[in-house]
Write a structure and sequence with these properties.
- 37% of the residues lie in helices and 23% in strands.
- It has 231 residues and is of the alpha+beta class.
- The chain has one domain (10-54, 108-229).
Length: 231
């Protein structure tokens, strides 16, 4: 599948902020399935929360890592004279890594992404403190009145198997903040529309200009109709 995407013409949105905004995907980490959905907590507070699919995936990662570590360790303890522990270091380490990674991502991922009108605050609690400790530069909060628009973009996964769809906040100074990224355009569009109405800002959907003719051919539809067929 070709990764040559249709260029985006910001002029179609009729907004000076759109013309000043970058239209290259931010390429945040994503998945081929829907990972987060918008939930209305109250009329003044919306949150982005982990889906059941992502919860199950992360729990399975944790359980499989823990099970493989326990099984290998138990097997070795029953016959320590037959196999040197050094031969098991790599698989045991892999089990520990999968257990720790699954547990950490589940714990961090369950923290909400908050849009709070009373506090005039956008805040992504998922990896804010962790990134700060690791010295990673990523913007995880801003005032709601600094958000000028929402932006939807797409890009091809590195292996070329499927498309990611990302939702970004566009600030009044044209800087962007990545909100979420996954493989369901239908759900992303629904959530983006809810947030746009809640925030009172325009929604710029660039996906219809980005989808390739190759993908349109694969789906048997026109380039213009491709986004409506991707879920």
């Amino acid at each position: 599948m070709s990764d040559e995407l249709q260029p985006i013409d910001p002029a179609r949105f009729g907004d000076q902020l759109a013309a000043a905004t970058a239209w290259e995907p931010m390429e945040a980490e994503g998945a081929s399935f829907c990972t987060y959905r918008v939930v209305e907590i109250s009329p003044t507070r919306y949150e982005l929360r982990m889906t059941r699919h992502l919860s199950i995936y992360l729990v399975l990662t944790f359980v499989c890592g823990l099970a493989s570590f326990g099984a290998l360790l138990s097997w070795w303890l029953e016959r320590p004279d037959h196999v040197h522990i050094a031969w098991l270091l790599l698989p045991l380490t892999a089990g520990i890594v999968f257990t720790g990674l699954g547990g950490l991502m589940f714990y961090q991922g369950r923290k909400p992404v908050v849009f709070d009108k009373q506090l005039n605050q956008y805040r992504d609690d998922r990896y804010r403190k962790l990134n700060a400790r690791c010295g990673l530069e990523a913007q995880h909060e801003t005032n709601l009145d600094q958000i000028g628009a929402l932006q939807i973009l797409t890009y091809l996964e590195s292996e070329g198997d499927f498309y990611y769809f990302e939702l970004n906040l566009v600030l009044q100074d044209s800087d962007r903040i990545a909100v979420t990224c996954h493989g369901s355009l239908k759900h992303l569009r629904e959530d983006a529309a809810k947030l746009a109405r809640f925030l009172g800002v325009p929604l710029w959907d660039g996906t219809d200009q980005q989808i390739t003719k190759t993908l349109a051919s694969y789906l048997g539809v026109s380039v213009r109709d491709v986004p409506a067929h991707i879920e």
